[in-house]
Amino acid sequence: MARDPRYDILFEPVRIGPVTAKNRFYQVPHCNGMGYRDATSNAAMRHVKAEGGWGVVCTEQVEIHPSGDITPFIELRLWDGSDVPMLARISDAIHSQNALAGIQLAHNGMNAPNLTSREIPFGPGDLPVFSIFNDPVQARAMDKTDIRNLRRWHRNAALRGREAGYDIVYVYAGKLFGGAMFFLSRRYNQRNDEYGGSLENRARLLKELIEETRDAVGDTCAVACRISVDELLGPDGLHREEAHEVIAHLAEVPDLWDLTLSSWDNDSQTSRFADEAYQEPFVTGVKKLTTKPVVGVGRFTSPDTMVRQVRSGILDFVGAARPSIADPFLPKKVEEGRLEDIRECIGCNICVAGDHQTNPSRCTQNPSMGEEWRRGWHPERIRARTSDDTILVVGAGPAGLEATMMLARRGHEVTLAEGGDTLGGRVMRERHLPGLHAWARVSDYRIGQIATMPNVQIYRESRLDAEGVLGFGFNRVVVATGSTWRRDGVARAVLKPVPIAEGAEVLNPDDLISGMRPKARNVVIYDDDHYYMGGVLAELLVREGYGVTLATPAADASNWTHWTMEQHRIQARLLGLGVKIMPHRVLTDIGAGGVTLACTYTGTTVAVEGCTLLVTARLPTNELARALEARRDDWGAAGIASVAAIGDALAPGTVAAAVFGGRRYAEEFDVVRSPDEPLFKREVAGLTAEALPWS
């Protein structure tokens, strides 16, 4: 298919200082939880982005010195020359696909607790470090020697970045990660020397870093400045007007301006709280302040929105982090006129959670993220079939749809049987809950792909039992029948069913999603799941006029969403709607008119009136899998080689885990592997060759 001419503007080359990007698709720096620990996995992930058509592919932030050590987070390091080969592996991977490679140099200053290096952090003043774990570490105020050292370290890192083959070298002053931002901020910079006070003084360090980086590498490398344009704190923080004043002051100093919000939770808001292009009001007008190209983000997934950003003079480059994870081939699909094949980001921030938890980032839409090298997975390709096995997939939720799609791409004849009349499983049922409409993209994409596949047969309203499955003659059976929410209170804090009085009104999320509503006007939600469901249902009910109390053993509502950077927004919304939140409470029993809750610390109990809504654990819907296992002796006569449960039917988890389970089945169902074999490739640190004192 040919590209639609209205998207031609996205494929124009753009000059950035001494280098030229082949198009306007710009993968901005993004963390991924692999960093220096998983160098080849990191390189393979960036390689796939470049293969997918991104004109510029950047690293995550790269620590330039041990005094800016952000442990426990695992990013890249360029502390000295020994790190150059690892960084070069990444730039080589990007260059192999004719993309520019960008490296985001970072000294995190007051954001770096230095837990590995044990160096004393420093910043503009004597203040505690700004870290998400509230580390009991305080930064010291930088003196002139510290500032000279920082400038030298940054210059040296820029030279090492050039040695490693990078085309764009960043100076980072954003998100309260780049240390120079602490100098820009009136909140943190209360100095009275030439680096404090006026805006010109507060911008002095940033100006020096950019100028010295250009002096070091500017003949061959472009120098980009990543800067935050608003902290969403009004005049108490760095705000739009002031940030634009900084940019105007330094307008022509860098070769490119990369614009963000601060901090990360503002810059990467979930789809529950922000729509596509939500950063537009903050970046509009920057291009009038500088002749240099400007890149910005906004969870861009629509090519039409991208075109509007460029034609309206808002941005020169369409920046993306999360959309480039969800679909590394987004640019190629636009270029080839295959818009229907784009895997749109759902804005769930599972990718962010991976980095926060120091494991390789995952993606709900793209199960190959982080698996490109270690498992050999590709977002667009899968190896051809090695047999003529016919496959029955039972259940059309996220796991079943992914398995069906990828098995069909391998060339197998696949039959998909769904017990209901709607494909999509849990994401289609949950899409109508507050803020979750974008999550339906998980099923929409896969249903659209499957609809074009002649080797897939779909049967709706087909509830199958073991006898029926045995009679069909399929070689492989995949059970992807999902899960159901428990009704007995069992989850993490309570491991045995709680007493429930006769006549008590007890509901679970499945009831509300199916349309049921409490008879009582007051509802007690007991949330021991801690992800999104408890908070979403509290919002649903209170908006429908119910009085809602949300009780949880955790410290706050939807506690796990701290990892996805949305807990504070969930809590604020619930409190603003009038939801009463009761933290540190464990369910002890359910009465006819309410519940009894015990304090997790003291055991003191309190009674709360209302209908009970249990958001606790889930049980796999695996009756079919168990029934087939019980009849294993009949498989041979029926032509069945294997039966496997996948996704929630195997073990309830996130939507991302279900999609991963579907992909893994399609990749591995016909692989013969010993249980003792490694599950994937891994890199092991080399041992030092130096003489050891005990040798």
Key words describing this protein structure:
695 residues; alpha/beta; globular
Q: Can you characterise this structure?
A:
The protein is an alpha/beta fold and 695 residues long. The chain has 23 helices and 29 strands. Strands 3-4-6-10-11-12-13-14 form an 8-stranded parallel beta barrel, surrounded by 5 helices. The chain has a 5-stranded parallel β-sheet with strand order 17-16-15-18-29, sandwiched between helices. It has a 5-stranded parallel β-sheet with strand order 20-27-21-22-23. Helix 19 links the parallel strand 21 and strand 22 (547-551). Helix 1 packs parallel to helix 2 and helix 3 packs parallel to helix 6. It is globular, with a radius of gyration of 27 Å. The mean pLDDT is 97.
- From the helix content, strand content and strand pairing, which structural class follows? alpha/beta
Tell how many strands the DSSP assignment holds: 29
| Rounded mean pLDDT score | 97
Regions with little confidence, pLDDT below 50 for 5+ residues: none
Question: If helices are DSSP runs of H or I spanning 4 or more residues, what is the number of helices?
Answer: 23
Could you state the oligomeric state of the chains shown? single chain
Biggest sheet strand line-up: 3-4-6-10-11-12-13-14
C-alpha termini separation: 66 Å
What is the percentage of strand-forming residues? 15-25%
Largest β sheet strand count, sense and barrel closure = 8 strands, parallel, barrel
Using the alpha-carbon principal axes, give the shape.
globular
Helix content: 25-40%
Q: Supply Rg.
A: 27 Å
